[in-house]
Amino acid sequence: MPDSLTAQGLTSDDTCTRLRRLRQDDTDNAIRRRRAHTDDLIRILRNLTALALFSLAGLTLVAYAGVRMGIPPEACLAGSFSAAFLLVRTFAKAFESVRPSLPDAPKDPRSTDEQ
User: Fold this and answer.
1) According to the model, what pLDDT value does residue 57 have?
2) Can you give the residue ranges of every domain in the chain?
3) d(CA 110, CA 74)
4) pLDDT score, position 59
5) CA distance 5 to 10
């Protein structure tokens, strides 16, 4: 009789350990998914902020140059909005010509949600 109780107790302990391990893995996976989601949101916000700052700087430069040439500010802003495409293309071409001389950017860590 004591041997069977001991065997049941050991089996019960093994089962509890396995269940605890499964729960731990589920919790860890949920934490990893949340962390990956947060990292992705931070990356998106960082890129949107950079885009907004670049756009603001471009609009400011075009408006300032227009005002210095005697063009009304309203016309400068309208012209800068219509010329935004050209500014982006010019920046892209300038960046492509300078890119080989720049050091490599640090790589973003791989999303932990991808497995």
Assistant:
1) 85
2) 2-100
3) 46
4) 80
5) 9
